[in-house]
């Protein structure tokens, strides 16, 4: 059959043919491309030489089509996963993992890589070429190339099992999310909820065949406002527990999968000579070691704990006014919002009318124009995988093509939760030609209703700017080799370009670009802008403790002998003791849906959010000294951070941008925790 995955993309700018690709195309295309790649690799092994071009460039060309097919599949698997895609995902994952191991554990291929690496100093390589051969060599070693044959066999088994288990974990979270629906039939139970939420709940009920009632799903745009505004404490508890027990003691239970992932990760790390999975991961991070991570988290903990305790006392006092003497987690968002109204005289619902999605998107494009001279032009001739997707061509000030940009903003049952940026096609060299990237951001924002457009919360605006920062990292990449382009940097550096963008949202100069009332056209009032700015520090102690709780749990899981982890809730509680300021709710577990560390790339790396906050707070102080749209500063950020990808060590790049190492005091000052 004709298979679009085996043809060169013919869309504008080589856009991928999402409109032609069907689930049944993937396995035949993967098998054909792997067969072709194997023939190419045999020729590669038999060809004499171990120079840079042969070992790095020619080898990458051989596997390019396999990478292309895998990239499309996993992007769709996250953003538009039909039942057909889900069915073939285990075989796709198993086949790709096996093929990857066939390369990384092949002694002849590694011999060439090793010879190239050992002769690198005599090959007149530039810094980027030096970095890519060092990364390639280390990648082979970390995949087991130096192991004995018997150990290589075990490494293959571990990698294949881990690939399947992490996929199963992710699918269970998605299924558990989609499986839950709370139906409300009494209108009094909607007390306190915004009209826009009630309308969305009625539309969901109609869609689910329950017209006349109101339905609540576990999608973030529903559970967050419900927990924030619902006056019905019992229903708040019900929704909270449902969300906090996804894939826990239900038909999608992830507990045994989680334990097995930890056992296999630890065994893999020990095979490679590391004590723990955390030691293995952190060898290639700015933090370098578990001790340095723990010292960093401890420093933040000491600063944040007293603030968080004071904040909890305020919430407890508010709850007592309602006769509640046992403030619980499911009360936290509700009373936090009441406290915000009292202390700052505003709430998120006051902001929504000024945050129409389309205007927010126009605003972030204008920020990119002022900082980096970029121009985003919406086009209709780029193939899409779903009708919600919008497509843009991006150009610089000289009218040069920068890349393609895709956005996908609304929840659906085929999309996993959360928000992310992905390189559909990474910037870099393809068959001898350096090509521009195709980047997408995927979110789960408040959907439009029959009477209202998509009106975002402040958190959703911050999320959009965050993911757009990742997108800029991908779009503005200016390197030669794909493995070093865009976001292919140390994991605890990758959040700098994303998190720094969030700072602009709290600045009047930025809000004035897009925050206009969707009905009246009125510009957001100056006093509301001040309140938004103040909200950046509101309950920051509790916010920091929550992030520390996740980071410490991650480090605990990946630094502990997994055979001692028999009871997931007990282990979780023990890890959270110091950071937990609310009573534990029986029947819940954050671990079984902690996709960041069990299905994403954040294992032994969740700390990187706070680590990158130090970088972004310090970097944004630099912008503030010269003006947040100062082109001299933004050009430096572009040149030394956004364009360079992973071509140099991140600390060296940061110091060239900033002129100094990052100061942790910048984060404490911004958060009001100093």
Write a brief structural summary.
This protein has 674 residues and is α+β, with helices and mostly antiparallel strands. It is 57% helix and 6% strand.
Write down the overall mean pLDDT.
95
Strand segment count:
9
CATH topology of the domain at 4-104 and 106-146: Glutathione S-transferase Yfyf (Class Pi), Chain A, domain 2
Largest sheet: spatial strand order: 3-4-5-9-6
Question: Helix- and strand-based class?
Answer: alpha+beta
Form type: globular
CATH architecture of the domain at 4-104 and 106-146: Up-down Bundle
The percent of residues in helical segments reads 55-70%
CATH classification class of the domain at 4-104 and 106-146: Mainly Alpha
Uncertain parts: none
CATH homologous superfamily title of the domain at 4-104 and 106-146: Endopeptidase. Chain P, domain 1
Strand percentage, roughly? 5-15%
Largest beta-sheet characterization: 5 strands, mixed
Cα-atom radius of gyration: 25 Å
Distance between the terminal alpha carbons, to the nearest Å? Answer: 65 Å
- Count of individual helical segments: 27
Descriptive account of the structure:
The protein is an alpha+beta fold and 674 residues long. Among the domains are: 4-104 and 106-146, Endopeptidase. Chain P, domain 1 (Glutathione S-transferase Yfyf (Class Pi), Chain A, domain 2), CATH 1.20.1050.40; 180-244, no CATH class. It contains 27 helices and 9 strands. The chain has a 5-stranded mixed sheet, sandwiched between helices. A hairpin with a 5-residue loop joins strand 4 and strand 5 (401-408). Helix 1 (23-46) runs antiparallel to helix 2 (52-62) and helix 4 (83-104) runs antiparallel to helix 7. The longest helix is centred in the middle third of the chain and has 32 residues, at 290-321. The chain is globular, with a radius of gyration of 25 Å. 46% of the residues are buried.
């Amino acid at each position: 059959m004709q298979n679009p995955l085996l043809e060169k993309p013919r869309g504008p700018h080589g856009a991928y043919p999402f409109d032609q690709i069907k689930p049944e195309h993937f396995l035949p295309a993967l098998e054909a491309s792997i067969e072709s790649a194997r023939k190419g690799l045999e020729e590669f092994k038999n060809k004499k030489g171990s120079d840079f071009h042969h070992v790095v460039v020619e080898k990458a060309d051989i596997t390019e089509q396999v990478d292309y097919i895998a990239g499309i599949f996993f992007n769709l698997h996250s953003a538009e996963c039909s039942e057909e895609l889900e069915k073939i995902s285990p075989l796709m994952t198993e086949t790709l993992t096996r093929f990857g191991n066939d390369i990384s554990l092949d002694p002849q291929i590694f011999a060439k890589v090793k010879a190239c690496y050992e002769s690198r100093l005599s090959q007149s390589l530039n810094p980027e070429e030096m970095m890519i051969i060092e990364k390639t060599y280390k990648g082979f070693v970390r995949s087991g190339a130096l192991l004995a044959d018997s150990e290589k066999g075990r490494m293959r088994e571990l990698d294949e099992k881990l690939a399947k288990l992490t996929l199963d974990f992710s699918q269970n979270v998605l299924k558990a999310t989609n499986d839950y629906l709370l139906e409300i039939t009494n209108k009094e139970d909607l007390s306190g909820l915004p009209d826009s939420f009630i309308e969305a709940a009625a539309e969901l009920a109609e869609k689910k065949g329950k017209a006349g009632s109101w339905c609540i799903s576990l999608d973030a745009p529903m559970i967050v406002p419900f927990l924030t505004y619902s006056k019905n404490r019992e229903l708040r508890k019900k929704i909270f527990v449902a969300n906090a027990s996804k894939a826990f003691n239900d038909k999608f239970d992830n507990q045994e999968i989680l334990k097995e992932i930890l056992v296999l990760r630890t065994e893999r790390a020990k095979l490679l000579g590391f004590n723990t999975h955390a030691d293995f991961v952190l060898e290639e991070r700015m933090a370098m070691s578990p001790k340095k991570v723990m010292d960093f988290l401890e420093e933040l903990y000491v600063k944040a704990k007293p603030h968080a305790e004071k904040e909890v006392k305020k919430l407890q006092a508010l709850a007592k006014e309602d006769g509640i003497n046992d403030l619980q987690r499911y009360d936290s968002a509700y009373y936090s919002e009441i406290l915000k109204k009292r202390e700052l005289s505003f709430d998120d619902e006051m902001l929504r009318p000024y945050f129409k999605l389309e205007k927010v998107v126009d605003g972030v494009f204008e920020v990119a124009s002022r900082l980096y001279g970029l121009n985003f032009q919406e086009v209709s001739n780029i193939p899409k995988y779903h009708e919600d997707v919008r497509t843009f061509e991006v150009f610089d000030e000289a009218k040069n093509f920068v890349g393609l940009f895709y956005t996908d903003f609304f929840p659906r049952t085929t999309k996993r939760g959360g928000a992310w940026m992905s390189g559909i096609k990474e910037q870099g060299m393809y068959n001898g030609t350096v090509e521009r990237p195709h980047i997408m951001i995927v979110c789960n924002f408040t959907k439009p209703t029959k009477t209202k457009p998509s009106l975002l919360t402040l958190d959703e605006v911050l999320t959009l700017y965050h993911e757009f920062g990742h997108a800029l990292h991908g779009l503005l990449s200016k390197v030669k080799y794909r493995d070093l382009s865009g976001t292919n940097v140390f994991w605890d550096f990758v959040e700098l370009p994303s998190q720094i963008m969030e700072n602009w949202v709290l600045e009047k100069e930025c809000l004035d670009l897009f925050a206009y009332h969707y009905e009246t056209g009125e510009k957001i009032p100056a006093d509301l802008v001040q309140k938004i700015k103040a909200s950046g520090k509101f309950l920051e102690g509790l916010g920091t403790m929550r992030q520390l709780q996740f980071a410490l749990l991650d480090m605990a899981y990946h630094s502990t002998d997994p055979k001692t982890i028999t009871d997931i809730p007990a282990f979780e509680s023990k890890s959270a003791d110091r950071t937990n300021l609310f009573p534990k709710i029986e029947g819940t577990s954050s671990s079984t849906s902690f996709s960041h560390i069990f299905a994403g790339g954040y294992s032994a790396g969740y700390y990187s959010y706070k680590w990158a906050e130090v970088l972004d707070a310090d970097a944004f102080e630099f912008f503030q000294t010269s003006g947040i749209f100062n082109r001299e500063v933004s050009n430096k950020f572009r040149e030394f951070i956004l364009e360079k990808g992973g071509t140099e060590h991140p600390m060296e790049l940061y110091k060239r941008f900033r002129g100094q190492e990052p100061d942790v005091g910048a984060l404490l000052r911004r958060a009001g925790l100093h």
